Amino acid sequence: MREYIAEIASRYWGRPATEAEVDTALAEDPTDDLVAPTGVFLIARLPDATMAGCVGTRVEKPGLSVLKRMYVRPGHRGHGAGARLVAAAEDAARGLGATVMRLDTRDDLVEARALYARTGYAEVEPFNNDKYAEHWFSKNLT
Question: What pTM was computed for the model?
Fold first, then answer.
């Protein structure tokens, strides 16, 4: 999570994020809700057990899940890991009873927005007021 936060914060500010800024971001938006019984946190590993990426999902309300913390390490991008992580999160969300998956992202996360479009997400009207959200997506999981 620290690596993920450091990258997205650095991109947002246009400079390397400090350790204190990463700590603050993690405290402001923890991932402790990505656990059973209403959430899942998945880690993509290579055959040698190297961690390549992660993604989480949690039930927001019955039938609706949210995609969170989608991240592929820079050295592992461009090989389909992102799409596989999104598909795994969708399967997990279905297992939690979700029929719809939503997510939000930022303008500067161009690659993420392209990934979501490629994997069937449609941009929708804002559904939250997260201070960093600039694009909102939704996908029917049925």
Answer: 0.93
